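I'll show a typical protein example:
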Amino acid sequence: MAVFEPSRALSEGVRANPSTLFSRVLGIVMDWNDRRVTRNALHTLSERELSDIGLSRSDVENM
């Protein structure tokens, strides 16, 4: 027989703390911007430079 013991209240996941929600949204936006800046920097590299770091042009497009 299985025993289920929740380690936190069931309603804990339902409530949204505004500061936690803001932190999550801010983190998502910051991650998106970091990826955007990285893609833009990689687009300026030549095929040879990309090859030197183990990437291809399609890898940059899929980031």
Observations:
- The CA atoms of residues 39 and 62 lie 9 Å apart.
- The chain is about 60% helix and 0% strand.
- Helices lie at 18-43, 47-52, 57-61.
